[in-house]
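Lecture 7, part B: from sequences to assemblies.

Below are the input chains for today's worked example.
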Amino acid sequence: GAVVSQHPSWVICKSGTSVKIECRSLDFQATTMFWYRQFPKQSLMLMATSNEGSKATYEQGVEKDKFLINHASLTLSTLTVTSAHPEDSSFYICSAKGLAGGAEETQYFGPGTRLLVL
Amino acid sequence: RKEVEQDPGPFNVPEGATVAFNCTYSNSASQSFFWYRQDCRKEPKLLMSVYSSGNEDGRFTAQLNRASQYISLLIRDSKLSDSATYLCVVRAGGFKTIFGAGTRLFVKA
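Predicted structure of the full complex, as structure tokens:
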């Protein structure tokens, strides 16, 4: 089946540092990638949607200067949490949309990245 | 009002029981509906799509009621391995996906 990978899976960092998370579609080309955030016992919240080669579209309340998204190719998107603070600690999940052997475009999720900011 | 609402549970059921979850959505223009399963500290995984005519996959049956704007998931003959959080997912045009907060299910031996 289609695979989406994320790296790193775990990050612990000091407040004020920037953290970069990579999301890759391993066996298909992702026309669109999505970044979600999930706090404990809460639902996944869409942060932004990005299409390859264009600027990301951010959801209301998500600071684009704090969460930098780069979708450089059809298989790679990166999320950079700039100047991370403890309140940014969360589970970040990327998702990629594409045709992965099926007849319809489907959304596939990465395994997630746990960020803990001290 | 939340765009997608679910009873958070938890539902505690014995093995072999039948359990049903409901989910309501507010956007009447929603086009696609899904149930995802999320295990603790893992990413969501697609359980099944939900079609207007209703669909079944083994022990799982999903139904959609567009008039009342709700979808349901029925699990028959519950297994211990069914313990997870079940997410109701609604998609409007353009692949904008809205997740419900999830319903937790615990299946006991």
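Note for the exam: The two ends of chain A are 37 Å apart (CA to CA). Keep this in mind when comparing with the next example.
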